[in-house]
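#structure-requests
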Amino acid sequence: MIKLQVIGHLGRDGLLKEVNGKSVINFTVAHSERYKDGQGVQKERTTWVDCAYWSDRTAVAPYLLKGQLVYVEGTVEAEAYMNKENQPAATLRMRVLNIQLLGSKNANGDNPGAAPASTNNYNNVSSSPSQATAPAATEGPADDLPF
């Protein structure tokens, strides 16, 4: 199995669909990285990943809003094709196994992807209970820190 982990921003709102009686949430995640080329010129490259989250845990769908910072992991496949200009291109598709909302804030200072305090916390949603991330174990007292 090839596993991919991506932290990035949603490129569009999650779209909940029913396909053959099963629920799927489709969305895209963009990951951008900055680097300097051989001449020292600052460049930026964005990689888009098309995501499909097949799960009965669809309550997370309303929180998957464009611009939301997320962590997704799952299995991946790449597909090569010819684009409109008849140039070779490729796309990445991920079957999402785990998704975490990371709490990006928009320009208004509110958090569009955060669940209201009165609802369940969907910051760690997994397609099966056995894949859910356990809470971090607490370390010893603060005075045991190495710094």
